[in-house]
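Structure tokens please, single chain.
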Amino acid sequence: MAVKRPAKLRVILTPDDTRKLILPDGIPKTMGELMDEVSKLCALSGNFRLQYQDRDFGDALVNLISTTELEDFATIKVIPVTDDCSQEFNLTVCDDLMPQSSDDTEILSSPSSSASTRTRMWPREFQIPVFSYDTELQLEKGNAVYRSDMTRLTLSSKMKSDILEKLAEEIFKYKAYPTDADFSDVAEALIKKHPCLSEPGSYNRCYGWKQRLKTKMGNYRTQLKGIGCSELIANSLKSKAPEDALPAKKVKRPRRGEANHIPDIPAGETIDKLENERLSLLSEVKKRNNRSVIREKMAKTFSLRRKEIVEKEPKIEELKERWPALFTMDEINNEFLRITTVPLQPRFLASLDKHHSKLIEIIRNKGGVVREKTQKILKVLDQSLEVNLKRECLLKCLTVYLGEDVDSLIKEYLVAQKEEAETELKRCAMAVFVIREDEDPLQPAHDIGIGIEGVEVLNELPSVAHACAMLFGLIYAVNLSYPGELKYTFDALQKIFMEIEPKKMTRKVCSLSAKL
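Here you go.
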């Protein structure tokens, strides 16, 4: 019998109150047991949830849903919760200290969100929902018979309809337009949980279920479109211009794993009310120390902004005039989180650090053109231990490795070349601009900015890596396509580094992913 080892956890109650939790029998197996231990230690009364520091996101705080995520000496934080799930906290601790609301994580399902707002991306393992009682009862008996003598269950039309209906609802929680690979995931998960539903004539025992799910999702979208789902109405023939009124023309679907592509208007709001909020934002952005108000109003007007950006496709210059708050680092991060449910800057930078050693090793072992083009970059890397410079070198090496031009992504100029830089900015579709005092790459840049469609949208950024993260976020925020000359670089950033829609990669990116 294995000896149980005690564990220690750091528990954060408030910014000024941190405690040590000693668990003699180790980390509990269930969340209930862990929350009981925390409650006893801190003498808490009231509802609360726990967050932990996730290494995948650069130790950012993430909601804890399983104790398997924890290890000895981990840090957890107590987040008070009220019955109405608002962000106003009221929890009593033993020393009568009242915790304050935290900005460590942003709650996606805020009061200004609609019921259709998605809070998670497509899962790595699709969870089959619970069906109706009679269907579950038949499946339970069918699975028992199948394990006994491999006899498959014969489905009634009612039972098959119930299964497909529940699966369509569950799929729509993540995507309105699932891919072929997504349908395969669901079908395989279905027969894994209920083997009595496997099909004898199918090459993978579930091909028929996959095809039925595709048909069912089409019908389910038609049903939701009829009751006013914004994401689906955008693709109806009535919503298109006369010259584009064809079913397959200008379909406005998520292209890069957007969870909330065109969200519905929140309950109790109207287009006119949200437009008034947008107008008030124009004055709020001119005030100092006003980030919390701006964030609240930007979250509230998210549905209006996405509808405008996706359906009308305005130019960047027009967007800067109408939504100036969107073009700040804070709001690019917030908008990306609303659209994808994934944190932008923490994951981007943490992933660069995570893959740095292996990717540099791969690049150093390459010969030919890659070795020739990365010599100067690697020389700079070898001369510096500064983390942001290492990230910059990694991004440049990644671009070269994928056969693309670094100058298409990062354009570098001297201060004396200001006019040349401004000329290039005006004709540039999308790039990071770095202005240096001299030609020494080891010295900090004078200025780092981003240009899109000939417009400078950001400047005075902390580093080239931060600038690339913001550029990636802006592509999602303003619904742009990846530039053709950098399609492999952005595909790698999306699917390897950000882990968004990683199943469908280009051949080059898939090859790199396998090596990493």
